[in-house]
Amino acid sequence: MKKVLSGNEAFARGAFEAGVKVVSSYPGTPSTEITENVKFYDEIYSEWAPNEKVAFEVALGASLAGKRAMTCMKHVGLNVAADPLMTASYTGVNGGLAVVVADDPNMYSSQNEQDSRNYARFAKVPMLEPSDSQEAKDFLIKAYEISEKFCTPVLVRSCTRLSHSKTVVALGERGEEVDFGLENNIPKWVMVPANARNRRKFVEERLVKLAEFSKSSDLNRVEINSPKIGIICSGVVYQYVKEAMPDASILKLGMVYPISFDMVREFASKVEKLYVVEELDRFLETEIKAQGIKVENLNRDVCGELSVDKVKELFGIKEDINVEKLELPNRPPNMCPGCSHRGMFYAISRLKLFAVGDIGCYTLGLLPPLSAINSTVCMGASVSMTHGIDKASDGKLAKKAVAVIGDSTFLHTGVNGLMNIVYNKGFSTVIILDNRITGMTGHQPNPATGITIKGEPAPKIDFEILARAIGVKHVYTVDPFDINQCLEVLKREVEREEPSVIITNRPCIFADRTVISSPYFVDTEKCTGCKACTRIGCPAILWDDNEKQAFIDETLCTGCGLCPRVCRFDAIHQRGEK
Amino acid sequence: MKVDILMVGVGGQGIVLASDIVCDVALLEGYDVKKSEIHGMAQRGGSVVSHVRIADKVYSPVIPFGQADIIVSFEYMEFLRYLEYKNEDTKLLLNTNKIYPPSVAMAEADYPEDTVENYKTKFAILVEKDGLKLAEKAGNVKAVSTVMLGALAKILDFKKESWLEVIKDRVPSKVVDVNIKAFELGYAD
Ligand code: SF4
Ligand code: SF4
């Protein structure tokens, strides 16, 4: 049977067909939907882990137990999992282990554009790169064969355009589950220096064997057309090249690391001019040139995404398109109406605090009119950076700076920063915006949610008790829609020369739809047009320029009750209220 | 047949599901199909675009500039953001309902009504639908995207039964009837 599947759905299907037993991941755009689709297969145990390092180690443990395992993450997530990756390269695997990593060229929803192919070289493990959903499924199944044959974790690289594109896939059946049993092999699995030195050699020999394998593998494909131009490419870039340069000869690499240079030399000998077309870093090009193989230079921008148009441009094919670009009002992403973060951000911006932000929906607090965020680096950084600010200013800036972090991100890597603040006698104020869900990536549960990926009930982490257990003495839970309470607690806690944690207690409106109540409206008799309510940045509050009054789009309003608290003229009321 | 369709609008309008339906219909009719979209922030009121490409063999999942055969704009002004994809023969299916961007809502920018009026005539064929009114008539204001699918079905060479079959398969069972009605209203002239 054929179906139109996204790259991510196809990876999930591939795990099913490969007989995978365990999948552990942390959500991150564009990789999230792989694990979200795996959860529909009852044959596979799946879970959300608190971060990518944990997820990777769970998968490695499953492999040690003799079963096939997978972990999926976005490119920056692989940084978090890099520690176990580097050593898993030495231990190798027992049951097959595949790591799917999704890059984000053009940074549609990421803080940097790093090219994960560098990790394959860094960790000395093979990397496969599919170019459509069919290959996503097929290559993942191949990854398990390679993993077990060569005793190595296998990286499978996706990107936004593969993960979030849909193409036709032929579905297969579930394969046999492998079961190699728990492997008790101390020289292989205990990486004390004496053992690791031996495995180090194994890793180098494995690379040679993998390159040999690559040479004869059908993962790579040579398409000889005109002998004038030969192009080496991989992944989704292959699709752009095929469309832009239909006459060129192509070496399509399905395995991007290690590369079989014999194969490249043979291809090079069949064409007059050899080019490498790739997205982001000059990864293949550098490797190939280092072998002394002549590659023509392309004046390529290493920033951002490629496309059919850009590939044509690289080869000097100009097309007359009338590129008209108009100045239009933008549609920036915004915190949803009823978002539980809005009240706290309003309070932060009223007090003109320096908010050290983190990764999540609350990063959107950076946009006007709230303009409440002053930095965003990586998951968990807000907490530790605030401590750095505190120490750098001998405590002075601790009275101006606060860390804001979501529940999922706090559990990901924020909690370590908090331990550090307490241990090293900092004064920082950490605000945990606990809305019980991972909002940004599309509402995945986490250890504070109370359910698992499959929707089964689970224990819930209590942030108040957790913070106290770490040693924070000043822990306060506030209602983020009660602005006066937020202002009061904030003012008091930033002044305090001791660490404090402030926790907000309203769910994301997607985590719990029952919190939605009847909408509010503006009483036109009482509205003075002071515009105070428009400053909370709620998409449901609109401004009528003719009447010089605010009004509320009642189809968008979730009845959160924040806006009446900023109106000093008692002009905002709830429908149905007496 | 070879057709490149660009579907544009605002997060929350159902563009992702609508473009999935087009893909399923194309597959059912025996074509290769690819689609690509960026939906990282779609839920939060951002601008959404979905590329759907149908042919015997499709390579890039993204439509090159100047090559869209049809642009379906689920919102009144959104097609203006993607003019570089149009050529002289591009057809425009336009939902006349407006959704104000935040800057317009806060009265810091104007909604470009005149510009829309000016540009919508520059397409080879223009079909305008009041999606909201038709969806209301069908029984649910949320069925605007299905109205637009009906309008799209009218100008594509696929069997109507294929559309109905896929819609029945794709939308939740309790809203199938409303969506079929919305589709028919979009399909009618
Ligand atoms: S998804 Fe939830 S957390 Fe994110 S902006 Fe919307 S309401 Fe807020
Ligand atoms: S805060 Fe109150 S008085 Fe001021 S514009 Fe809003 S509704 Fe009118």
TrEMBL record, chain A:
What would you give as a GO molecular function for this chain, any one?
A: thiamine pyrophosphate binding
State the signal peptide span.
Answer: none
> In which residues is [4Fe-4S] cluster 1 bound?
527, 530, 533, 567
Q: Which cofactor does it need?
A: [4Fe-4S] cluster
- UniProt KW keywords: 4Fe-4S, Electron transport, Iron, Iron-sulfur, Metal-binding, Oxidoreductase, Pyruvate, Transport
Among Gene3D superfamilies, the record links this protein to:
3.30.70.20, 3.40.50.970
The top EC class is oxidoreductase
Which residues does the UniProt record annotate as the domain 4Fe-4S ferredoxin-type? 518-546, 548-577
Residues bound to [4Fe-4S] cluster 2:
538, 557, 560, 563
What is catalyzed by this enzyme?
A: indole-3-pyruvate + 2 oxidized [2Fe-2S]-[ferredoxin] + CoA = (indol-3-yl)acetyl-CoA + 2 reduced [2Fe-2S]-[ferredoxin] + CO2 + H(+)
Q: What InterPro entries does the annotation carry? A: 4Fe4S_Fe-S-bd, HACL1-like, IorA, Pyrv_Fd/Flavodoxin_OxRdtase_N, THDP-binding, TPP_enzyme_TPP-bd, Transketo_C/PFOR_II
The answer to whether keyword Oxidoreductase applies is yes
Is Oxidoreductase a UniProt keyword of this protein?
A: yes
Could you tell me what the cofactor note in this record states?
Binds 2 [4Fe-4S] clusters. In this family the first cluster has a non-standard and varying [4Fe-4S] binding motif CX(2)CX(2)CX(4-5)CP.
Which EC numbers does the record give? 1.2.7.8
In its UniProt record, which GO terms are filed under biological process?
A: small molecule metabolic process
Query: What NCBIfam families does the entry give?
Result: IOR_alpha (TIGR03336)
The record describes the protein's role as: Catalyzes the ferredoxin-dependent oxidative decarboxylation of arylpyruvates.
Subunit details: Heterodimer of the IorA and IorB subunits.
Protein name as catalogued: Indolepyruvate oxidoreductase subunit IorA
UniProtKB/TrEMBL annotation, chain B:
- Is Translocase one of the keywords? no
Q: Which domain of life is it from?
A: Bacteria
PANTHER family linked to this entry = INDOLEPYRUVATE OXIDOREDUCTASE SUBUNIT IORB
* Oxidoreductase keyword on record: yes
InterPro entries given in the database record: IorB_Oxidoreductase, Pyrv/ketoisovalerate_OxRed_cat, Pyrv_flavodox_OxRed_cen
Ranges in a coiled coil: none
Question: A single Pfam family, by name?
Answer: POR
Q: SUPFAM superfamilies per the record?
A: Pyruvate-ferredoxin oxidoreductase, PFOR, domain III
Q: Which UniProt keywords apply?
A: Oxidoreductase, Pyruvate
Q: Which residues form the Pyruvate/ketoisovalerate oxidoreductase catalytic domain?
A: 11-188
Q: What is this protein called?
A: Indolepyruvate ferredoxin oxidoreductase, beta subunit
Q: What is its EC number?
A: 1.2.7.8
- Alphabetized GO MF terms: indolepyruvate ferredoxin oxidoreductase activity
